[in-house]
Amino acid sequence: MFDLDAIEIFQHGYIDPSEIIFREEIQDICRGNACRAYGKTWACPPAIGGIEECRSRVNNYKNALVFFCKYELEDSYDYEGMVEAGEEFRRTCDKLWEKLEGHKNGFLLLANGGCQRCEKCTYPDSPCRMPEKLFPAFEGHGIVVAEVAKLAGINYINGKDTVTYLGMLLF
Ligand code: SF4
User: Fold this and answer.
1) Cα(first)–Cα(last) distance of the chain, in Å?
2) N or C end of the chain, less CB within 10 A?
3) Domain assignment of residue 9, yes or no
4) What share of the chain has pLDDT > 90, as a percent?
5) Ligand 1 contact via 43 beta carbon (within 6 Å)
6) The whole model's pTM is what?
């Protein structure tokens, strides 16, 4: 449907957002601060709202492009490699967003992890500095990445010593 040439996407598929299950227990993991991003940016809970608000945000759209990128690691303990891969994935999300002129065209892009654009986020004291480039957290919405990958018919696990990051463009 979209021309994804020149964007390093490994696999993609299309789904109906109304099929996504939103799970309170995933937001419980956020509240437990498992990835240390809870309450740190405008892209994560509690800033993005509870399960019902997240469900309603996503269900405002009729279609979703689910896409992911796969990165090689030195081994399964390669934390540095995972961080670098996360940065590379965010650059890919930016390329997709720019190509589609996302904000102007009313898309919503959910991406892996919280927002790390600014050295220090303005949350919660003042508005986001770049709301036009704010990609709310995929899992922070209470969505299980593996379930969405399955709906889209794509593989979330892609072999030994690799890491996969997944995003969803709603339109
Ligand atoms: S763009 Fe900056 S201010 Fe906005 S959520 Fe990201 S880090 Fe925070």
Assistant:
1) 12
2) N
3) no
4) 80
5) yes
6) 0.93
Q: State which residues form the domain around 28.
A: 16-164
Residues sharing a CB contact under 8 Å with residue 39, sequence separation 6 or more, in sequence order: 33, 45, 46, 47, 123, 124
Q: Could you report the per-residue pLDDT of 129-163, keeping only the tens digit for each? A: 999 999 999 999 999 999 999 999 998 888 889 99
In a domain? residue 22: yes
Q: Note whether residue 4 is domain-resident.
A: no
Distance 135 CA to ligand 1 centre (A): 10
> pLDDT by residue (tens digit) across 80-137?
999 999 999 999 999 999 999 988 889 999 998 789 999 999 999 999 999 999 999 9
- What is the domain count for the chain? 1
Q: How far is the C-alpha of 89 from the C-alpha of 83, rounded, in Å?
A: 10
Ligand 1 neighbour 122 (Cβ under 6 A): yes
Pocket test for ligand 1, best of 103, 118, 120, 133 (most atoms within 8 A of CB): 118
CA of 129 to the centre of ligand 1 (A): 6
Of 143, 131, 65, 62, the closest CA to residue 100 belongs to 65
